[in-house]
């Protein structure tokens, strides 16, 4: 899709605050937030999996809420604050969820992991999950084809108990 | 995705004006369904009119004791709103049975009503589909139709409406507030979606220049005896094979009021006045529930792969009514069916 966008002269200027830093860029209307992050801002931590909102690999936080960046147009998020997996660690210290994923070996290939961690950060902020069943239900938008689900749930439980 | 123009509406009147100025334009709010359909080339709008910043995000009590919900309230905010949790838990439960946490954060209430079928042939632009390309035929009738409709179908289309939220809204007797060039109007949710008949390209009765501004819930919320039971191929994040919204009022063990709506079985949420009338005044027993289920499913017909839905729906209706009677509604997180 970035290729198509590059063929047209049309550009709309937008401002985003990405991981705490103000960024100004011009986007075609059909540029998704995912493509803007990966191809324009070179933040490739956010992954393109299905590109249809079915796998959750592209999950980022927009104004603190977890969303599928592949189903969001960048131009519609003008003025928004975006947090990607690159923005979770602070001052060289991993986010508690990042540490918990390491502690529990909560991945195999790692492709879904940025989306899993951003989604889990959104889940913790929402404060709706109280037990493992509720974590599983509220994380169902993030698929892991390696099947690391038990360790992902354990990692989130750890981060939840310490937050 | 095709190239398109982008406009940001400044208010509802501006959105209506922009719609009138460009017949190929579409409104976009959450975008979760529309952008997906654009990526598949099923939708090719000439212009997207961004309404996501319009002030349609309030949830207010109405004079008669109901609630008016702005069309741009995100699905998650509606499901978790204290007044919905307390007074309309059937609606909260149905919303939480649908999609994923991310999609519920993005998707608007109005957009949920406007989402299109997930019929695989509708999505596949290499196959005939009367809904996508009127007059080309229906690939599902004699194709892979396991997920398709058993009620209200036509020779043109056997697609289902995918919304869970709409099933609860149908049971609750919700109204849809609509604005257009000639002013505002209100339609019952049960009249908002259409049956396919010979015009399956029309999902709803929303006019081409109109915009949904709000949904209104009547005062009666059935907060004690209700259940939303959704049966699907995996336990979460899948569309319904069959879903049931059941809501009753009990006086002792006698049913004084009953609402039943089915999802996953028709082109719109499926209600039957006869089925609900058959429950009123009756004891809340599985026999009576079965009789109501038979009335609700009257006229159901199957194609080659979806015949199982008829019996599945019958059993799901009985089970949901038992759950409602016992005040043990189906949990959307703890999956065991009580």
Automatic annotation (TrEMBL), chain A:
Superkingdom, natural source: Bacteria
Give the Pfam families listed for this entry. Fer2, Fer2_2
UniProt keyword terms in alphabetical order: Iron, Metal-binding, Oxidoreductase
Instruction: Look up and give the organism this protein is from.
Output: Bradyrhizobium diversitatis
Instruction: Give residue ranges for domain 2Fe-2S ferredoxin-type.
Output: 12-88
Provide the coiled-coil residue spans: none
Q: Which SUPFAM superfamilies match?
A: 2Fe-2S ferredoxin-like, CO dehydrogenase ISP C-domain like
PROSITE patterns xrefs: 2FE2S_FER_1, 2FE2S_FER_2
Q: What protein is this chain from?
A: (2Fe-2S)-binding protein
Question: Hey, what's the signal peptide range on this chain?
Answer: none
Automatic annotation (TrEMBL), chain B:
SUPFAM superfamilies named in the record: CO dehydrogenase flavoprotein C-terminal domain-like, FAD-binding/transporter-associated domain-like
Q: Give the coiled coil ranges.
A: none
Q: Which residues form the FAD-binding PCMH-type domain?
A: 1-222
Q: Sorted alphabetically, which keywords does the UniProt record give?
A: FAD, Flavoprotein
Q: Which domain of life is it from?
A: Bacteria
The entry's protein name is Xanthine dehydrogenase family protein subunit M
The record lists the lineage as: Bacteria, Pseudomonadati, Pseudomonadota, Alphaproteobacteria, Hyphomicrobiales
């Amino acid at each position: 899709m970035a290729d198509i966008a590059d063929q047209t002269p049309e550009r709309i200027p937008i401002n985003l605050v990405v991981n705490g830093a103000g960024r100004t860029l011009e986007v075609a209307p059909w540029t998704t937030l995912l493509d803007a992050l990966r191809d324009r801002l070179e933040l490739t931590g956010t992954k393109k999996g299905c590109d249809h909102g079915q796998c959750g690999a592209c999950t980022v936080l927009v104004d603190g809420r977890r969303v599928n960046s592949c189903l969001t147009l960048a131009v519609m998020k003008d003025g928004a604050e975006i947090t990607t997996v690159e923005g979770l660690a602070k001052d060289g210290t991993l986010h508690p969820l990042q540490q918990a994923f390491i502690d529990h070996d909560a991945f195999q290939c790692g492709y879904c992991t940025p989306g899993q961690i951003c989604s889990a950060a959104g889940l913790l902020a929402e404060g709706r999950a109280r037990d493992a069943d509720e974590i599983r239900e509220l994380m169902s938008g993030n698929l892991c084809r390696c099947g690391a689900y038990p360790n992902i749930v354990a990692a989130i439980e750890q981060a939840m108990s310490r937050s | 995705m095709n190239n398109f123009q982008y406009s940001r509406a400044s208010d509802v009147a501006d959105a209506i004006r922009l719609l009138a100025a460009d017949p190929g334009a579409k409104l976009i709010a959450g975008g979760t369904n529309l952008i997906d359909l654009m990526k598949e080339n099923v939708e090719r709008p000439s212009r997207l009119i961004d309404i996501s910043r319009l002030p349609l995000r309030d949830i207010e009590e109405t004079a008669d004791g109901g609630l008016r919900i702005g069309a741009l309230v995100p699905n998650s905010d509606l499901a978790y709103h204290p007044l919905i949790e307390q007074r309309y838990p059937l609606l909260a439960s149905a919303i939480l049975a649908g999609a994923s946490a991310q999609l519920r954060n993005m998707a608007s209430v109005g957009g949920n009503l406007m989402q299109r079928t997930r019929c695989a042939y509708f999505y596949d632009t290499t196959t005939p589909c009367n809904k996508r390309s009127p007059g080309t035929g229906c690939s599902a009738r004699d194709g892979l139709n396991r997920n398709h409709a058993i009620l209200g179908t036509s020779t043109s289309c056997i697609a289902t409406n995918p919304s869970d939220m709409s099933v609860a809204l149908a049971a609750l007797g919700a109204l849809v507030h609509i604005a257009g060039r000639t002013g505002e109007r209100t339609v019952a949710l049960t009249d908002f979606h259409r049956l396919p008949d010979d015009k399956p390209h029309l999902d709803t009765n929303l006019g081409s220049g109109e915009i949904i501004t709000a949904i209104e819930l009547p005062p009666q919320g059935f907060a004690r005896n209700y259940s939303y039971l959704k049966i699907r191929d995996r336990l979460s994040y899948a569309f319904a094979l069959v879903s049931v919204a059941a809501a009753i009022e009990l006086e002792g063990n006698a049913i004084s009021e009953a609402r039943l709506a089915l999802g996953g079985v028709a082109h719109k949420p499926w209600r039957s006045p006869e089925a609900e009338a058959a429950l009123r005044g009756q004891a809340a027993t599985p026999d009576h529930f079965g009789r109501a289920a038979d009335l609700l499913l009257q006229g159901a017909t199957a194609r080659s792969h979806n015949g199982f839905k008829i019996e599945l729906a019958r059993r799901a209706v009985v089970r949901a009514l038992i759950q409602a009677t016992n005040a043990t509604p189906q949990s959307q997180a703890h999956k065991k069916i009580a």
